[in-house]
Amino acid sequence: FWLKDLRTGARTQFLFAFALQQLTSDMSSAEVRNLLTKAVVVEGGLEGAQDDAPPEGAEVPVERLGVEVPAVPGDVGLCGGLRAQDVAALAGRYKAWIYLNTADNPDFHLAELEAAGVQVVVAPFPGPPTMPSDEQAEGVLAALERLPRPLMLQCSTGMRVGAALLLWLAKHRGYTSESADVLATDLDLKFWTKCTRCGPMKEWLLAKLPAQDAPLASLPRGDGLVFRQLFDPETSTFTYVLGCAATQEALLVDPVLEQKERDLATLKELGLQLKYVINTHAHADHITSGGAIRKDMPEVKTIISKASGANADLHIQEGDKVTFGNLALEVLATPGHTDGCLTYYLAGSPGMAFTGDALLIRGCGRTDFQQGDAGVLYDSVHGKIFTLPGGTLVYPGHDYKGRNVSTVDEEKQFNPRLTKSKEEFAKLMAELDLPYPKKIETAVPANMVCGVQE
To answer: Dihedral angle at the C-alpha atoms of 46, 50, 51, 57, nearest 10 degrees?
Structure first.
């Protein structure tokens, strides 16, 4: 709370702050600050927080000027209406500024921005009851995509800026509505978690995003990657198709036996020739289709970790690469869920990590069977996956809540298990008391001979 002291004492300060929060939950930070400034002038009963003001000549923290900076992506500020002097104070810290109202709005201070050399885009993005048109939404997304960072998003109340940022993050990463919901909640975006009038905006945004069972493609990376994320609803398993557009060579990651025909049809539709079937580990909840595919297509080779102890045509380990056309997956050993767990990393912009059951969205694989070890898993994730570039897209082996993709930065900051200490994590995993997978008695033996069974 930006006012530190009240003449009536600390208890009154807390109650006043709480009441003010309830009354102004739909207001921007700048509006609240202006309201409090007026209260000081009119009533004279409040003392400002001058005693902890920055030294003369020091930069005022952007939060004191009514700016929020969500942890993800970390280089985009959000604000509502600002005074001209506040815009002038902020302008030198941002390379670009997107204004979501029309240019004739009194909150828009173009002269101050131009004086600081800021790239400015005016891109109207209306809120309830009028929702943005497709053209307006695309205009904001295009600006967010091309403008340099750090960047400021501004509207009148500080609400629509959160919606614009979330829509861009979700579209940029291919999020389902459930993945967007989790991210908005974890970031505590004001329009999502505090605004009582933003329901129509939330509904509009979620309707723009795909469902979990829709085949999802990645955004263009510039390296000729052909990509599809597929989902098996019975086992909540993700299968991934990765192909090289230049050579048509392709591979399947973690395919499910019952979805064999779907996967082969997808490859044919994309004009790809299957080279490898690769698994992140020997699964306990489904049977791989590698053996069945290899029986029909002998030229296809199956791949699994050497440490898994499972049969396959090729065994790989840390430091190896799986090449398909002009592209290659880097192999990272990430044991802990099982001894043989691998993460496959495709470098690029953005990078892509196929983490199997080692790292899930806001979770991780269990460690109570198949050589599971909580301490080993903790070290694997922190030492191998969390050291990848923060923007790396995390594609897990499963999700049970409608989500489909995350990033390394998100999981480092918000994963409720893996943000704990190693000791706390081990205790939590030991106390999960989960039932065994329904197919464990058939899946594990079958997957131990993945791809070479007669």
So the answer is: 180
